[in-house]
Amino acid sequence: MANKLVSEMRLPPHLAHLLAARRLTTAKDVLSLPEVELMGVLDSGIHTARAAVAHVSEIACPPYQTALALLEAVRLRGDGRLATTLRGLDEALRGGIPAGKLTEIVGPSGIGKTQFCLKLALLATLPECYGGLNGRVVYIDTESKFSSRRMIEIGEKSFPQIFRQEGLAQKMAGRILVLRPTSLSDFTKSLEQMKVTLLQNDVKLLVVDSMAALMSSEIEKSVTGLRQHPLRWSLSFLKSIAEFSQIPVVVTNQVRSQSSDDGYHYSFEVGKKDGTNSAERLESHLIAALGIQWAHAVTIRLVFEAHSGHRFIKVAKSPMSPAVAFPFTVESSGIILLTDEGICVPGPEITSIRFQGGVRPASVRRRCHKINAMQVRTGGACGDCTWSSTMVGQPALSS
Amino acid sequence: MEIADLPISTSHRAKLLAAGYSSLAALSAASPTRLARDLSIEIQEAEDILKVAVGANKSKGVDGLSTSSVIKGAQNAWDMLSDEQSRKHINTGSADLNNILGGGIHCKEVTEIGGVPGIGKTQLGIQLAINVQIPVEYGGLGGKAVYIDTEGSFMAERVYQIAEGCISDILEYFPYCHDKALSGQERLKPESFLADIYYFRICSYTEQIAVINYLEKFLQEHKDVRIVIIDSVTFHFRQDFDDMALRTRVLSGLSLKLMKLAKAYNLAVVLLNQVTTKFTEGSFQLTLALGDSWSHSCTNRLILYWNGNERYAYLDKSPSLPVASAPYAVTVKGVRDTVSSNNSKRVRFLGMLSGANWAPIFEH
Q1: Which residue of B has its CA nearest to A259?
Q2: Last residue of a domain, one of B40, B59, B74
Q3: Phi and psi angles of residue A85, each rounded to the nearest 5 degrees, phi first
Q4: Are residues B70 and B86 in the same domain?
Q5: Cβ contact (<8 Å) for A268 and B284?
Q6: Domain of B224?
Q7: Does the domain formed by A79-393 have CATH 3.40.50.1220?
Q8: Do residues B85 and B50 share a domain?
C-alpha cells in the first residue's frame, strides 16, 4: 500500500498531473512530506496540497473491518493454529501456536528448543485427523542442528500407529523443506523468494532456528549504530509473511548474560536500588539476545529455563494467556510436560531466564524414572539408573 | 496579516510583491481583472487570491462585527471550566487507575501509555475499546472505538473474552436494570460490542500517516466514535527510518493532527508506546521510545511498570493532576484492580517451587 503508484489512484486530473509533474510517484513520496514542504514542491496553495494529501491518504489507507468480522473469520477458517499436543500448553495458548503471528522460543543452549521445533515441524505435516495441519513445513536451520533421524525417532515414539504404515514416514519427512543459509544475506534472499511460493506450495508452518545465530555474525562486522538494520528488516519481513499467508511462524532465540548496560528502571524508580540482589541476579539470570525491540515485536514469547533441577516452559508474553509455567523433560518422543496444570508465576519472574542446576546434555537419551530434587542439585547419580547430571557452563549455585 | 503570511503558492506571492502589492489593503482595493493583468495569471486564479485575502481580513477582526469574543476562536477560561467538568471519562477497568487519572481517560485529550513488553499495554487498549461502549445508563459513554493496529497483537478471541467480562460486571452491579427493554438486552451481548470496534491493520509508516489523515473523513461519517487507539505508534517508526530529522517532523505532524481530531470530534486518543534504554545520570535507564521531541507531543503520559510482583501505572505527565502510582492487574476478564489475597482462579503459587512440596506431584 505504501508503494502504490499515484498514477493508479484515479485522482482528479489536475491533482494527478501536478503530482506526476513533480515526480511524486508513490503514496510514500506524497505522505512523507509535511504540508508546508508539499506546498513548496507542488507550487500550489494550501487547499490544493491538502486535497492531494486527503485523496492519497484515503486510497493508501487499508480498509477497515469490525472486530466482529475478524472473530467470525477466525472461527470460520478454523484459524490454522498448530496444536503442540502438550495439553497444558495448548490450553494456556487457547488451542496452540497461533497462525499469522510471530512466536518466539528463547532459552539457554541445550535446553530443548530445537527438540521442540522438530516436534512442531513433524506435527504440522500430519493429517488433520491426527491434529496436524496436513501441509508442508519450511525449516530454516542456521546452526545445522536439524537431525532427520531424531525427527523420525520422535515421530515413531509419539505416533506409532501412523509411522508403522508403509511409506508414511517418507511422506511426512518429505514435506519438510530444510534450508541452511550461511549468512544473513542468504537468509534474506531466501525469505524474499519464499513469500510467493509459500501459498503456492501449501506451506503451513515456518520455523527459523535460530535467529540470533545469524545476527551475531553480523554484529562483529558492523558499527553499533547500524547493528539494528538487518534485524529490523528481517523482523518486519517475517511478520508480513506471517500475516500475508496466515501461518504460524516460530523463531528461536539465544540468551546472553546480563550486563550493566541494560537498563532496568525508569528515572522515577531510581530511588530504589536492589543492591544485594544485583550481583546474584547478574550471575544466574540471563536475558534474551536480539534486544528489547525484538521483544516488543513478537506476539508470543515462550521462555525455556532451568532451575531447581528442573526445566520449565514459561508463557512469558501472550495476549491470550495468564503467566504460567510448565515443568517438562526431553525424552525419546520429544518434549513432554510433567504436569498439565500450569504454575502461576506472578510478577516479572515470568520474563526472566534462569540457568541453574544440572542440565542433561542433549546426547544422553536415557530417562530417569524418579527425579529427586536433592540429588540432582548436588550432581550425584540417581540411584535407579545411570543418568547423571552434569553441569554445563554455569557454576553450581544453591537456589 | 501580511502578504507574506497568506496561504498562497510561492510563485504567486513573488508575483504580488513584484507587482507592488505589499499590503492587504492594496490587495483589497483591486479587482480580479486588474490583478490578473498585473500578475499575468488567469482570472480564476486572481479571484482565488482575492478570496484568500478577504478571508484573512475577516479573521483580523477588521469588520468588527463579532461581539461574543474579543479574539475570534478564543474561549474564556470560565466557560472552559464548566466544559471540563461536564466531560465524561472512559473507565479503565481498575478503580485505582481511574483515581490517579481523575476519573479515567479524558476525552478531547491525547494520552500516551508506554511500558516494557508483556506489561499489558495491548490489554489496556482493548479494555478501553470495550469500556467506551458501556451504555450511558450504566455510567459509560455509549460510543464506538477505532483500533489502529501496527503490530498485529490484536487477537479477536481475547477481545471477546474481555467483552464477556465487562458485560458480566455490568450485570453484577446493575441487577435490576438489565431486563428493562429488549433493546437493552440486545446491546449487552459480546457480539454487539465487537461489532462497534473498527479495526485497521497498518503495515508501514506510510499507511499510518494515511490512516490518520483518513480519520478526518471517517469520523465525519461515524460520529459516534469516542476513542481512537493506536497500538503501537512506535513500531513502524523504529523500523524504516534512517533520517531522524524527517522522523521527528513526521511524528510532530501526526501528533498535531491527532490533537486536532481529539478536540474537533470530542474523542479520546490513546497512543501505546514501546520502551528503549537511554544513558542519563551515569547509568542506562528505561524510557519511552521515539525521543525527546515526541515526549512533548502528548497531553498525558502513563507509564506501566513492574513493582515487585505487581503491575503498577505511573502518571508521568498531566496538565491538571499530580504524579501518582496505582496498582492494577490483568485478569481473564481484562484489566481490574489487584487483589492482595489469594485468588481462586490461580492454580499454584511460585513459592512451591523452592523445593519442599515438589516431590508429591511426580508420584503418578
Answers
A1: B284
A2: B74
A3: 65, 5
A4: no
A5: no
A6: 81-362
A7: no
A8: no
- What separation, in Å, do the N-terminal and C-terminal C-alpha atoms of chain A show? 53
A339/B7 Cβ within 8 A: no
Q: How many Å lie between the alpha carbon of A181 and the closest alpha carbon of chain B?
A: 23
CA atoms within 13 A on the CB side of B2: 3
Both B127 and B168 in one domain: the answer is yes
**Phi then psi dihedrals of residue B60, to 5 deg:** -75, -15
Classify residue A254 as left (phi > 0), alpha (psi -120 to 50) or beta.
beta
Q: What's the number of domains chain B is made of?
A: 2
State whether B272 and B129 are in the same domain: yes
Place of cell 503490530: B151
Contacts of A70 in chain B (CB under 8 A): 154, 156, 199
CATH code: domain of residue B153? 3.40.50.300
Q: Which residue of B has its CA nearest to A63?
A: B200
Which CATH number is B14's domain given? 1.10.150.20
The pLDDT of residue B214: 93
Q: Which three cell numbers stand for residue A97?
A: 501456536
Per-residue pLDDT of chain B (364 residues; tens, 9 = 90+): 567 777 888 888 888 888 877 777 777 777 888 888 888 888 888 888 888 887 776 665 444 444 445 677 777 888 888 877 777 889 999 999 999 999 899 999 999 999 988 888 999 999 999 999 998 888 888 899 999 999 888 888 899 999 999 999 888 887 766 555 555 566 688 999 999 999 999 888 888 999 999 999 999 999 899 999 998 898 888 876 778 888 888 898 899 999 999 999 999 999 999 988 888 777 788 888 888 888 888 899 999 998 888 899 999 999 989 999 999 999 888 999 888 633 333 332 322 333 333 333 333 3
**In chain B, what residues touch A321 (CB-CB under 8 Å)?**
none
Instruction: Answer with the residue of higher pLDDT: A19 or B133.
Output: B133
Residues B66 and B86 in one domain: no
pLDDT of B281: 78
Give dist(CA A127, CA A175) in Å, integer: 12
Please state, in angstroms and as integers, the Cα–Cα distance from residue B43 to each residue in B3, B35, B39, B208, following that order. 19, 8, 10, 39
Residues 343-362 of B with CB under 8 A from A: 346-350, 352-355, 358-359, 361-362
Cell 463579532 found at = B66
Are B314 and B184 part of one and the same domain? yes
Specify whether B214 is located in the same domain as B354: yes
- Chain B hits for A324, CB-CB cut-off 8 Å, are 347
Is B214 within 8 Å of chain A by CB?
yes
In the structure, what pLDDT confidence band is assigned to residue A394 with cuts at 50, 70 and 90?
A: very low
B94 shares its domain with B151: yes
| ipTM surpasses cut 0.95 | no
Q: Rounded distance, CA A105 to CA A315, Å? A: 10
Select from B24, B41, B74 the last residue of a domain.
B74
How far apart are alpha carbons A5 and A24 in whole angstroms?
A: 9
Interface list for B 58-77 with A (CB within 8 A): none
Write down the pLDDT at residue B148. Answer: 95
Rounded-to-integer distance, Cα A60 and Cα A65, Å: 16
